[in-house]
Amino acid sequence: MNFYDIIFYIFAAITLLSALFVVTTRNIVHSAFYLMFTFFGVAGIYVLLGADFIAISQILIYVGGILILLLFGVMLTNKITNVEIRTGTVHMLPAAIASGIFMGAVVAVMVWTEWKSEPSEIPLTTTKDIGRLLLTDYVLIFELLGILLLVALIGAASIARRDKE
Amino acid sequence: MLDTRFWILDSGYSILDNEINNGRSKLLHVGLTHFLIVSAILFSLGIYGIVTRKNAVMVLMGIELVLNSANINFIAFSKYGNFGLSGQVIALFVIILAAAEAAIALAIVLNIYKTFSNVNVDEIDHLKE
What we know:
By secondary structure, chain A is mainly alpha-helical. Chain A is built from six helices and no strands. The longest helix of chain A is centred in the middle third of the chain and has 25 residues. In chain B, helix 2 packs antiparallel against helix 3 and helix 3 packs antiparallel against helix 4. At the A-B interface, helix 1, helix 2, helix 3, helix 4 and helix 5 of A face helix 2, helix 3 and helix 4 of B.
């Protein structure tokens, strides 16, 4: 039980507890803030796995971009007449039972499989190697993602614009 | 030229520890399985969020949880499965796709709010007249 394990358990607890509160809180804005803690916990897990560039990208893109976008969505799609914004839930008990069974099945598969795992040699800073991989092995996906982001940008802007009346 | 820079806190060296310990601390010592279990629990929490929530933005939050759990899986196997950095590059692509999808989904949700005046997914049940 060395320092690595303790840090892993701390970050795993942050992630899973925050995710639990995301899906069970009735207040939407609280849910968005618990989602932010979940993203930070996941970024910590990435660092423990040696993925430093991905961890920073996660914080930049998810917390700095997607979460702000979700908060905008929350604020723009609810009539803020009262102080808090509540939301309802449907079918809590059957969904809890079903997702509990599913979680049990997947965790059982994860635990009982004999993974052929050997720790691979990941360099200490991954940025340079990820950059090289993006432009040599994965260049097609890289260019296609550029086009996809352009299309998403134009599409989102044109879907959500106000009609000139 | 060939300097292998190892991750200092690599828990992979503990495989030797396990054999010395007779596997007594096998459950507590963090290996590949622990990351996969975290990913599985996060995935099922995301599914629970998608199924039970009525607000469309909360459904999007559940979708983000599911995508994050898949990313943890990719990066865990990238470290423990001798894949080099391929898993991390794929995880980067998943993050980018999640961002694009969240933008488009929220644009659609804004349009739905303009038409129906609420975003409960149960009550959005007729097409444009």
